[in-house]
Design goal:
Elements: E1 3-10, E2 15-24, E3 27-37, H1 39-42, H2 50-72, E4 81-87, H3 91-108, E5 112-116, H4 117-129, E6 135-140, E7 145-152, E8 155-161, H5 167-177, H6 184-192, H7 217-231, H8 239-267, E9 272-276, H9 283-296, E10 299-301, H10 305-308, H11 313-326
Parallel strand pairs: 1-4, 4-5, 6-9, 9-10
Antiparallel strand pairs: 1-2, 2-3, 6-7, 7-8
The structure holds 5'-O-[(R)-(carboxyoxy)(hydroxy)phosphoryl]adenosine and zinc ion.
The site of 5'-O-[(R)-(carboxyoxy)(hydroxy)phosphoryl]adenosine (KG4) has 20 residues, from helix 5 and helix 6.
């Protein structure tokens, strides 16, 4: 059909989300996108607590769906399908979404499409900018870090990724080490702006190894050691030392991301390089990747942040693309905690 309108549901981490997306003559349009974050619920625990997340998703997912439909101005009956994140993620949350989607599909007879959360992120540039396959994607967030080559709605090649922490996780841990507020990305970036990136030497993990793999956990430990060295004999960390450490850390992350991206783009010369994930919001990292692409004659694409971070519009869109390719799932669709692309 020329036009398809899908509801999307996302509940795999700490955001409950629902959205309505329409495909018309090849282009996607977001009719509504509701995201209910849980940051406040988990703040006291220093990380996402799976039990709390699961309960919050179960309580909120129906309401998010109602709001998404209301904001799109459409009744359920006007939809052509329901897409839901079926993994990977915290299983309690994924289950809430899948149960909700199955209930709606059973009640309406609408097609049900289970979507891989990572496919949602990876297909976002097609929704926002209508770009063609193939393209390269760097997914950098609190939970993900990988280079993907995208050749079709269900055709992903993982070129490489982090062998330990995701970069956002490293930003968050560095913030904790330096007593800066969470989430760490924005607060480390703000400190880095006042700092000297060259004063404190930090490693560039895995830079000397071939391939596209990355590592961030040693970098975080190096920051911890440097902090202890700077604090030795003092009551605490001096303001300038903290800023310099943040600048050095951010520079190290940017350096390895840029170098591995350069390799990936050299080995896979595609027209477009897209980034997604919360870390793509970092202005130094973004500017450096943009400069890299300009030098390689590659189009650099960073979707708006609200579509780079977890949302359901990307799930609805991926559902539409995959439905066109392979049709619907049936009621045996299961929620999967692990699901490599
Ligand atoms: O994609 P996202 O919202 O959630 C998932 O991880 O799924 O990414 C959140 C991560 C956090 O670790 C946060 O510290 C990081 O993205 N982040 C940043 C910036 N803004 C958010 N990291 C570096 N610089 C930023 N400006
Ligand atoms: Zn995500």
């Amino acid at each position: 059909p020329d036009s398809l309108t899908f509801l999307g549901i996302e509940s795999s981490c700490d955001d409950t989300a629902a959205a309505v997306v329409r495909l018309t003559s090849g282009r996607g349009e977001i009719l509504s996108s509701v995201v209910e974050g849980q940051t406040a619920l988990h703040a006291a625990f220093g990380g996402v607590v799976p039990e709390i997340a699961a309960r919050a998703h179960a309580e909120r997912v129906d309401l998010c769906v109602e709001r998404a439909l209301a904001e799109a101005g459409l009744p359920l009956a006007a939809l052509d399908g329901i897409a839901v994140t079926a993994g990977p993620g915290l299983i309690g949350g994924v289950l809430s979404g899948v149960m909700c989607a199955k209930g709606l599909a059973a009640a309406t007879g609408l097609p049900l499409v289970g979507v891989n959360h990572l496919a949602g992120h990876a297909l976002t540039p097609r929704l926002t900018d209508g770009i063609d396959y193939p393209y390269l994607m760097l997914l950098v967030s609190g939970g993900h870090c990988q280079f993907l080559r995208v050749d079709g709605p269900d055709d992903f090649t993982r070129l490489g990724g982090s062998i330990d922490d995701a970069p956002g996780e490293a930003f968050d841990k560095v913030a904790k080490i330096l007593a800066l507020p969470q989430p760490g990305g924005p607060s480390v970036q703000a400190e880095a702006e006042r700092g000297d990136a060259k004063r404190i030497p930090l490693p560039r993990p895995l830079l000397d190894r071939p391939g596209y793999d990355l590592s961030f956990s040693g970098l975080k430990t190096a920051v911890l050691r440097a902090r202890d060295g700077l604090m030795a004999g003092l009551g605490g960390l001096r303001q300038q030392d903290r800023a310099d450490l943040c600048a050095a850390f951010q520079r190290a992350v940017a350096d390895v991301l840029v170098e591995k991206s350069r390799r990936a783009l050299t080995d896979h010369p595609v027209r477009t390089f897209a980034v997604a994930g919360g870390v793509a919001a970092n202005s130094e990292i973004r500017a450096r990747l943009q400069a890299l692409c300009a030098g390689l004659d590659t189009v650099f694409l960073a979707p708006p942040l609200r579509l780079c971070t977890d949302n359901a519009a990307m799930i609805a869109w991926a559902g539409i693309e995959q439905f066109q390719l392979r049709g619907a799932d049936d009621m045996t669709l299961v929620a999967r905690p692990r699901w490599p692309l």
